[in-house]
Amino acid sequence: MDIDVKNVAMLARIRLTDAEATELGPQLERIVGYVEQLAAVNTEGVTATAHPHDMAMPLRADVVSNTNQRDALQTAAPKTESGLYVVPKVIE
Amino acid sequence: MAYRSLTELADQLERGETTAVELAQQYLARIEAHNPTLNAFVHCDAEHVLAQAEASDAYRAKHGARAMEGLPIAVKDIFCTSDGPTQCCSNILKGYHAPYDAHVITRLKEAGAVLVGKTNMDEFAMGSSNETSAFGSCRNPWHTDCIPGGSSGGSAAAVAAALTPAALGTDTGGSIRQPASLCGITGLKPTYGRVSRRGIIAFASSLDQAGAMTRTVRDAALLTGTISGHDPADATSAADAPDVDWLAACETRDMQGLRIGRPKEYFIDGMDPGVRAAVDAALEQCKALGAEIVDISLPHTQYAVAAYYVIAPSEASANLSRYDGVRFGHRCEHPEDLLDMYTRSRDEGFGAEVKRRILTGAFALSSGYYDAYYLKAQQVRTLIRQDFQQAFEQVDVIATPTSPVPAFRIGEKTDDPLTMYLSDVFTIAVNLAGLPGLSQPCGMVDGLPAGLQWIAPAWQEGRLLAAAAAYEAATPWHQQTPADFTAGEQA
Predict the structure, then answer these.
(1) Residue B301 has pLDDT above 90, yes or no
(2) Chain A neighbors of B339, CB-CB under 8 A
(3) CATH code of the domain made up of B6-264+390-485
(4) Cβ contact B84:B74 at 8 Å
(5) I need a labelling partner for B63 at 20 to 30 A (CA). Which of B33, B248, B268, B329 fits?
């Protein structure tokens, strides 16, 4: 299969250098080629497994359980100002 | 003393023959002496370790001992800890300090354990050799030109060389069991949902599970019992998991009436003849202990690796979208705009293997391919689960090799990612089915350990421990230690 690796990388928000694309492209094609053997399995009428134990998602009471930890959580941020995360300008 | 089990160390502490501080000093000295060779630890703060040990001795004097009082435990760099860095051995998390403890870390602290540091791993747990770590390869104590296995390679090497008596790892496709096998120690991956995943940096959320890496089966039971149990803050942590009598299960000394399944798909051409001979001999030993060996088939085994390498990368590509340079982690210099910041930060921060997996997942989930790859893989996952369910109608436990080969050389399999992926061929199906699995040493092949894997039905860790404890008591393999790291060791 021919895969446009730079396009896939853009979907994943990774900018590949040309050298990386040259190396990763054929590797990705080989991995996808390997997993294509799944097509040989008859899965007609088989339900998909998303969780190994068919557990129901539990619900909790709709109450506040966290205190405000903004300052602690933002200490790991690359750039903040007045309690906000600073990013490059989004709207011109 | 360093090569003693948690159980022996706990007895010595209880009898007052040593203290938590003495133990901490001893292991810290071994880390200082041997870590430069092994690169098993990526973070160790001696002062902080000693402070915890002092606090433990004080607690014991005042209140008596808790379940793991004063026992040193190392943890993989994937567990969030409020003390010290948590970097997942990735450049994108270099210097990251987590704001809270993972649930299992809280459990260990509440049980009185002394956390000795963070161990090396494949970046984001993506690898089978520890070679994808941003902090460099960890080395196998049995042969330092060889890999320790992965992704929990640092934990395995640290326990094997007695830099710590026990460690925690995580297992998404074999990352506890395979390095345990390659380093000659015991590793237990619990049933999915047994242990809370809160505060464990996510790789593939429907597969990840934390577990114990130890010198003995009983130690694995002690440590797993300590970290397991319901956590309301993790929606996938089971609220109604059947209990296991962890330590009592380890008292088993025979296998009378035990039906052990031997799946033909796990004894294949191409596996190392030495590993095969070791596992065959182990099964003979089980027969001598009273077990019945039953030939079984798990017919969809050959599709497990393919299903895994769709499901795990797909979940990873979603989980790792959080590393965007905004809230934490690496941000590139001078971004031109928002898109440039995202794409360049991620290109600079992630290593090649992590990128391969994210791209594989992004491809499998992309428009037009979802049904052919992701949905298909989830259906095959159902068939793999059903294989096990049918097998467990005939047998109590299943025994297989953990890895088809012993530890390979550093660099031997890095050229071809697919060859590396196939080294997990015997461990992956257990994660897809959410089952508990245990690896224990069962022989040596040219100076390198071989491992025996036990698989049980969901929630039946007690069966794994009973079988493994009986086998361990009848064989010498768990007592072997790598010669180069015994120097200076006093009995």
Answers:
(1) yes
(2) 13
(3) 3.90.1300.10
(4) no
(5) B248
Contact state of B335 with A48 under an 8 Å Cβ cutoff: no
- Interchain CB contact of B433 with A (< 8 Å): yes
Nearest to B432 by CA among B308, B258, B336: B308
Distance from CA of A32 to the nearest CA of B (A): 7
Listed in order, strand segments (DSSP E) in B291-366 are 292-296
CB within 8 Å: A85 and B328: no
Instruction: Report the first-to-last Cα separation within chain A, whole angstroms.
Output: 40
In A, which residues are within 8 Å of B326 by CB distance? 77-78, 85, 87
For strand B210-214 and strand B292-296, is the pairing parallel, antiparallel, or unpaired? Answer: unpaired
Q: In whole angstroms, what is the distance from residue B475 CA to residue B452 CA?
A: 12
Residue B360 and residue A28: Cβ atoms within 8 Å?
Answer: yes
The C-alpha atoms of residue B224 and residue B213 are separated, in whole angstroms, by 9
* pLDDT digits 0-9 by tens, B53-104: 999 999 999 999 999 999 999 999 999 999 999 999 999 999 999 999 999 9
**Per-window interface: B 338-357 vs A, CB < 8 A:** 338-344, 346-347, 350, 352, 355-356
Query: Whose structure tokens read 């404890």?
Result: B469
**How far is residue A84's CA from residue A73's CA, in Å, rounded to a whole number?**
11
Instruction: Provide mean pLDDT across the span B304-316.
Output: 97
Q: Which residues of B have a catalytic role annotated?
A: 76, 151, 175
> Which chain B residue has its CA at the smallest distance from A23's CA?
B352
Say whether B470 sits in a helix, a strand or coil.
helix
The reply to whether residue B379 touches residue A10, judged by beta carbons under 8 angstroms, is: no
Helix A18-35 to helix B304-319 angle (10° resolution) is 140
- Distance (Å, rounded) from C-alpha B238 to C-alpha B304? 25
Which residues does residue B441 pair with via DSSP β-bridges, in sequence order? B451
Q: Phi and psi dihedrals of B357, rounded to 5?
A: -70, -40
Return the pLDDT at B490: 47
The distance of B393 to chain A (nearest Cα, Å) reads: 17
Structural tokens at position B405: 């080969």
Structure tokens at B335: 């971004």
CB B173 within 8 A of CB B421: no
Q: How many CA atoms lie within 13 A of B162 on its CB side?
A: 25
Burial A57-72 (b: 16+ CB within 10 A, else e): eeeeeeeeeeeeeeee
Q: For chain B, give every domain's residue range.
A: 6-264+390-485
CATH of the domain spanning A1-42, picked from 1.25.40, 1.10.20, 1.20.140, 3.30.70: 1.10.20
Sign of CA dihedral B241, B220, B167, B320: negative
What are the structure tokens assigned to A4, written together?
């446009």
pLDDT in tens, A40-72: 999 999 999 988 887 777 888 899 988 999 999
Phi, psi of B451 (to 5 degrees): -125, 145
Q: Give the torsion sign (CA, B191, B196, B201, B203).
A: positive
Q: Where are the alpha helices (DSSP H) in B2-129?
A: 6-14, 20-38, 46-63, 103-110
